[in-house]
Amino acid sequence: MQLENLTKRYPNSAQPAVDSVSMDIAAGEMVIFVGPSGCGKSTTLKMINRLIEPTSGRIRIDGEDVTDMDPVKLRRKIGYAIQSSGLFPHMTVAENIALVPRMVGWPKSRIKARVEEMLDLVGLDPGEFRGRYPRQLSGGQQQRVGVARALAADPPVLLMDEPFGAVDPITRDHLQDELIRLQQELHKTIVFVTHDFDEAIKLGDRIAVLREQSHIAQFDTPEAILTNPADDFVSGFVGAGAALKRLNLTRVRDVEVAEFPTVTVDDPLQSIFDKLRSSSANEILLLDQRRRPYKWLRRGDLMRARGSLARAGTLVQDTVTREATLRDALEAVLTDSGGRVAVTGRRGEFIGVVDMETLMNSVHEMLEADRLAAVEAAHDLDDSRTHRTHAAQEGA
Ligand code: ADP
Question: Which protein residue's CA is at the shortest distance from atom 15 of ligand 1?
């Protein structure tokens, strides 16, 4: 998708609200607009689906100029999800989701099947939710229905205007995770507006940091923006704690998961004893019949177990998957008294553990790599300065 010199002048204002934005967004890419309130994020977004008519400029989707396209046709190309879901209160969940497919004239049976499919996709049971009204849903559920509605006509492009702005932090975290999962399945071209830089880092393939009038301060990957902010304005947005934020960019699957001695509930007690005694650690992990982490067992626990595992050991409280961020893993490690967290696979089966040492090593490596990149960038800058000075001297 291309935005070409998109400009918006509201009547009676001296300055344009959006001044000639141009941007190339690849198909299947998730791009985040982030910037201070009033900088023109929403206006830019709404010009893409013509909720706001651009004063000038063009929009192309798949090479096709959609700037003058009939708005109903445009709805088929561009889904739209907003803060507080924007659901119609007098329509059921199913009617809300069916809105665009009905508008563009799908047959009834196809719409019905699509509503079910969309509810499934966003993790809501169709039987339970299709007949409800928005007021009978939690904020997070409303937001899910909002996303289902935006995706219902299967548009290649999805616009999201602070969609998770009105829900509590924990729900927001879940909705963000779900969006990442959905996107892995659907590969939509997504433009997502937020003023929350952490959200931008977590979700974006690329982030456009915007200043007033939607002037682009920097348009790059989260890694590049964190490690090489273009100027003070961008640094201000990145804010403190860049090292911690980097933990959000690295996933458990990117680090080496440590091995840990295990036994299963089917093993005879004696062999569990033997294993504990022979292993150098004074702890082992007990797995259930499906090899899922069940309990941490220490030597002392077994002494007191008196022939049964039923009451021995400490239940595994928290696990992480390979898709979890290192920040999630750190959270789990810090709250676990043993200082490590079990990593599980698709069916919950045990894969290994992440401990404090693994985390510290990978943070050190990341920071070291960042320092190197910064030094190299400074070199390049020096080189180009020297070149320019030489050229100036030769010219003189
Ligand atoms: P953001 O989404 O980044 O908070 P907006 O796109 O909503 O910013 O607004 C950008 C600028 O345009 C602001 O200065 C705002 O006051 C102005 N603006 C937004 N909507 C209108 C309107 N309908 N009429 C006049 N000015 C507007």
Answer: 38
Give the Cα separation of 157 and 69 in Å (integer).
15
CA of 38 to the centre of ligand 1 (A): 6
Q: CB–CB of 55/43 below 8 Å?
A: no
Closest-CA residue to 323 (of 247, 252, 222) = 252
Region of 111 on the Ramachandran plot (φ > 0 left; ψ -120 to 50 alpha; else beta): alpha
User: What is the band of 70 on the pLDDT scale with cuts at 50, 70, 90?
Assistant: confident
Query: Crossing angle for the helix pair 93-103 and 139-151, nearest 10 degrees?
Result: 20
8 Cα nearest atom in ligand 1: 12
Ligand 1 site residues (CB inside 6 A) read 10, 13, 17, 35, 37-43
- Atom 24 of ligand 1 has which residue's CA nearest to it? 10
**From residue 321, how far is each of 183, 232, 240, 325, 326 by CA, in Å?**
18, 37, 28, 9, 11
Q: Beta partners for 320?
A: 343
CB within 8 Å of 181: residues ≥ 6 apart: none
Q: Is the dihedral of CA 385, 389, 390, 391 positive or negative?
A: positive
Residue of minimum CA distance from atom 13 in ligand 1: 38
Question: CA quadruple 65, 96, 116, 110: dihedral positive or negative?
Answer: negative
Ramachandran category for residue 134: left, alpha or beta (phi over 0 → left; psi -120 to 50 → alpha) = alpha
Closest residue (by CA) to atom 14 of ligand 1? 38
> What is the enclosing helix (H) or strand (E) of 367?
helix 356-395
Q: For the segment 230-247, what is each residue's pLDDT rounded down to a tens digit? A: 998 898 888 767 767 778
pTM of the model: 0.71
- Using CA atoms, how far residue 74 sits from 103, 104, 161, in Å, is 12, 10, 17
Among 33, 43, 83, say which to mutate for ligand 1: greatest number of ligand atoms within 8 Å of CB.
43
Stretch 338-363: mean pLDDT: 90
Cα-to-centroid distance, 208 and ligand 1 (Å) = 18
Hey, what amino acid is at 67? T
Tell how many helices (H) and how many strands (E) occur in the chain. Answer: 15, 17
Neighbours of 60 (CB within 10 A): 14
Quote the strand ranges of the chain, DSSP E: 2-8, 18-24, 30-34, 56-61, 64-65, 78-82, 157-161, 189-194, 206-210, 216-220, 262-264, 283-287, 293-298, 314-315, 319-321, 340-344, 350-355
